[in-house]
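Q: My labmate handed me this sequence with no annotations at all. I'd like to see what the chain might look like in three dimensions before we decide whether it's worth expressing. Could you predict it?
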Amino acid sequence: METRKVKETKDGADVKRFRERLKDKKKIVVKIGSSSLQHSETGDLDYTKLDVLVRELCDMRNRGKDVVLVTSGAIAVGKKAVNIKDIKHEEEDNPIAVKQACAAVGQARLMMTYQKIFAEYNQVAAQILMTKNTIVDNLNRYNAHNTFSELFKLGVIPIVNENDTVATYEIEIGDNDTLSAIVAALVDADLLILLSDIDGLYTDDPRQNKNAQFIEVVEELTDELMDMGKASTGSSVGTGGMNTKLIAAKIATSSNIDMIIANSKDIKVLHRILDGKNIGTLFVGNKETYFDLPEFVANMHNN
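A: Here is what I predict for the chain of 303 residues:
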């Protein structure tokens, strides 16, 4: 299998320049996936990781930055709470209802956990649940933007998830990689960090191709690069693979937002990224005048 070629930045000076400007980012959206929040052996929440994540986010606030957390995990937490292992087989007649019931249980438990940990660091957090209609509808989008803006003024960290309890195919965004990019564009963020179970973007699947090369910086999202993610799949816990991360990169970079994919194995990479360290894959923001967020979101399932 040959390694595919994609446009990337290789010059060391360019890499350093792009990384250095991360130090000046003022409004940051951080997304963490379901698999990053749980112990793989049991499916229970990893409280150590949660504590480190909250501490890192609070430290960002203490550095004077506005912060948003987009978190997965509600359905997984709910399934664990009501002892359901596989929604598809547990209730084949109406799996959507089972999924939404698990989300209702899990979202409450997840937020309770976050609130307790944030309180230990004297930080106030807020919950925001979104669907596609939050962005597509002009009034809903306006109100959501105002809510985020007021929370930032109050020094609050918004915790965002999709409203899985009511979302159906017609109004769902579908994964939190995409949701986090939509949120970043909505709040006019200047940096989006996707924490996942991968180090970043490679020229090919490193598990299948030993010659696959790690990509440090991507300056342009070419069609060939976007096609690379379409065959990827996510973990058994989450809903996103590399394809959703590249879609997120498309939304973010088109909105002039830098985006980084980094491994959540060590949550402390967050402050290292903001210190300009060369961690993960950096997608460079490049405003596209033709890009319209509500239109893109409205047509997502049609692409």
